Amino acid sequence: MKLTAASLILAAGAIKPAIAASCPAFNYAAPLIKNPLLPNPYQLQDGTPVTTLADWNCRRDELLDLFQQYELGDLPPKPHRLGTRFYDASNTLALTAYEGDKTIAWNVSIQYPKTGTGPFPAIIAYGGPSIPIPDGVAVLIFNNDAMAQQNSASSRGIGKFYDLYGKNATASAMMAWSWGVSRIMDALEDTPRANIDPTRVGVTGCSRNGKGALVAGAFEPRIALTIPQESGSGGSACWRLSDWMYANGTVTQTASEITGENVWFSQEFAEFSPNGTIPLLPVDHHELAALVAPRGLLVIDNTAYDWLGPWSDYGCMTAGHTAYKALGVPDHMGYSQIGGHLHCSFPTAQQGPELTAFFQRFLLNNASASTTVWKTDVVAPFVLSQWADWTWPTLA
Ligand SMILES: *[C@@H]1O[C@H](CO)[C@@H](O)[C@H](O)[C@H]1NC(C)=O
Ligand SMILES: *[C@@H]1O[C@H](CO)[C@@H](O)[C@H](O)[C@H]1NC(C)=O
Ligand SMILES: *[C@@H]1O[C@H](CO)[C@@H](O)[C@H](O)[C@H]1NC(C)=O
Ligand SMILES: *[C@@H]1O[C@H](CO)[C@@H](O)[C@H](O)[C@H]1NC(C)=O
Ligand SMILES: *[C@@H]1O[C@H](CO)[C@@H](O)[C@H](O)[C@H]1NC(C)=O
User: Fold this and answer.
1) Which N-terminal stretch is annotated as signal sequence (predicted)?
2) Does 127 or 11 have the greater pLDDT score?
3) CA-to-CA distance for 237 and 335, rounded, in angstroms?
């Protein structure tokens, strides 16, 4: 199939922009421009440079829209009614969402710290945690697979989310999971008996679930700390950089491959699957990291697997880090990439200072924890100016 900008615009027509009225109108009819470099996070779609915090907030709205439109599908708002109940005999938070004549129910089990009285900080773990969780932090087990199945490309439209919103909902699995995270946040706010402090909640996951954790951190502003672990392409990697790695001779996961493998992304995103079409995508994943700013973000990666796109991960997150620099909080984002271990098996070499310090600072109220972390054992250098024809403004 030959991709034309017009076919993309047509397909995108259904989406309702959620841009604040005070922002420049979002021009959905503008043709997509081929850009082999990482797109400029600091320029509105109409060309206006981002020079103030207000501009950045408009740009954030645009980026959230662009990601929904081209990669992830639509994120529905809070449902018409959400019922929540806490069962203290089983430490279970029970949620029921109602929309039209449809109802879905799901449970989140909570593992509380053995000591202390709460309200406790907590981390939402997609499918259970694969990083060590420190004392004092509760764990909320999120069965994201039940919310939106991710077995294969045939999983499209299967799961509780689609029971509520219909099989034809445009939301990808990752967008459906992010919706689920937002409902958990609603439930924690509404349920003081659960004894969790909703202002100190993080999200984590590994591999495919790491991609999902990064999306939830970008879309849900109540998340205080986001820890994507070994998320690779589709997570901390940039599509453009992964394509470059592939062309340079490293077999790494690309957009071409991922769109056929599973339902993490929307059907719309498959338009960017033919080799050579990624330069038309108006966003890339450095902007997903930028959407988490200024909140805590610790990106954990692994150089032992070419498939994860180690150089792409490192370069992409280096570009994303500029948003934290622009907002005057460079140490709210950390990056740690080490090889020599199995996928999703957390090495002690990444425990300290990075993991401990980020938990201390963003969930355990320890303002003195130092979260200045930027390390990799990737050998190929990444030079941002070769991939970006932009610099970042000072916004704070
Ligand atoms: C949630 O947990 C409660 C209490 O254990 C149980 O009664 C209910 O059936 C569970 N709901 C679901 C959807 O699993
Ligand atoms: C979903 O889309 C298909 C194909 O367009 C259509 O046949 C089907 O009726 C739709 N299902 C629902 C529940 O809207
Ligand atoms: C895309 O095409 C280029 C040029 O033909 C080639 O070098 C590269 O390996 C291809 N990439 C993928 C992911 O197939
Ligand atoms: C705060 O974090 C620092 C650095 O991680 C640590 O050395 C210190 O013990 C922590 N303070 C408390 C009260 O836990
Ligand atoms: C590109 O290929 C060269 C030659 O194999 C290699 O030395 C270099 O590390 C590669 N660069 C990246 C970013 O993978």
Assistant:
1) 1-20
2) 127
3) 13
- Cα distance between residue 342 and residue 93, in whole Å: 33
95 alpha carbon, closest ligand: 1
pLDDT confidence of residue 332: 98
What is the CA(94)–ligand 1 centre distance, in A? 7
State whether residue 82 is helix, strand or coil: strand
Q: Whose CA is nearest to atom 6 of ligand 3?
A: 247
pLDDT at 21: 65
| DSSP annotation of 354 | I
Active-site residue 207, yes or no? yes
What residue owns the CA closest to ligand 2's atom 14? Answer: 168
The structure tokens listed for 171 are 């939301």
Is-catalytic flag, 343? yes
pLDDT tens readout for residues 77-87: 999 999 999 99
Rounded distance from Cα 311 to ligand 5 centre (Å): 9
Mean predicted lDDT score pLDDT of the chain? 94
The encoded tokens of residue 223 equal 């998340």
Structure tokens at 78: 């809070």
Of the candidates 109, 155, 341, 343, the residue annotated as catalytic is 343
Q: Which residues pair with 83 in a beta bridge?
A: 96
Domain ranges of the chain: 81-386
Share of the chain above pLDDT 90, in %: 90
Helix (H) or strand (E) holding 311: helix 310-326
Query: pTM for this structure?
Result: 0.94
Q: What is the reported pLDDT for 169?
A: 97
Among the bound ligands, name the one nearest to the CA of residue 165. Answer: 2
Top CATH class of 81-386 equals alpha beta
Rounded Cα gap, residues 235 and 344, in angstroms: 14
